[in-house]
Amino acid sequence: MDAREQWLLFNLLYRPTAPFREAHVVRFIVVILRKYRIPFFHDAAGNIVVGVSSEIDYSRMLKESAREPLRVFVAHMDHPGFHGVRWHSDSMLDVTWHGGAPTRGLNGAKVWIANEHGYAAIGQMTQPRFDKTGKRLVSARIRITRKAWAARPAASVLFGGFADRAPVWRKGKLIYTKAAD
């Protein structure tokens, strides 16, 4: 991987994202596509379709015959995480969890919190609650331990996930990130 590819990958993986909260990743990708003048458009579901500049061009391309088959690559831009639901107090945020999660060691687990501007706080998970099977995390309370906001934001604009040592890092030849699936 050359330096430019590593820069792109690290910057992409650094972006905060959670289910239905992919705006930071989308903005980064759109900036890169525009910079390199790569055609793209957003479909009705909000997906980025790369390689054509409109749905009409995409439909036309699908109907064309060619020697090579049309290859389509799909990637989703979110990772398991939580959404803020309501403030229990100035430092305690109730959240709902979306996606897979471990079931052990959650009480006290370090989490990152973001909003529309980027990473905004660090906290600890408390009171994790599971579904009836005990195998799926559904909600928790987050104790805010460090924050970047002056005025408390609406709970509904906050989202986050488990915090590792950094959003992305390299150790030897391996690249690690907060979540990759």
Overview of the structural elements:
By secondary structure, this protein is α+β, with helices and mostly antiparallel strands. Helices cover 19% and strands 35% of the residues. The protein has three helices and ten strands. The chain has helices spanning 3-14, 23-35, 55-63, and strands at residues 40-42, 48-50, 81-89, 92-98, 110-115, 118-130, 137-147, 159-162, 168-171, 174-177. Strands 3-4-7-6-5-8 form a six-stranded antiparallel β-barrel. It has a two-stranded antiparallel ribbon with strand order 1-2. The model has no long low-confidence stretch (mean pLDDT 92).
Number of strands: 10
Instruction: Determine Rg (CA atoms, Å).
Output: 19 Å
N-to-C CA distance: 20 Å
Strand order of the largest sheet: 3-4-7-6-5-8
Report the total helices: 3
SS-based structural class? Answer: alpha+beta
- Ranges where pLDDT stays below 50 over 5 or more residues in a row are none
Q: Please give the largest β-sheet.
A: 6 strands, antiparallel, barrel
- Large-scale geometry: elongated
N to C succession of SSEs: HHEEHEEEEEEEE
Q: How large a portion of the residues is in β-strands, by DSSP E?
A: 35-45%
The pLDDT mean sits at: 92
| Helix amount | 10-25%
Which features would summarize this protein structure in a list?
10 strands, two-stranded antiparallel sheet, alpha+beta, 181 residues, 19% helix, 6-stranded antiparallel beta barrel, 35% strand, elongated
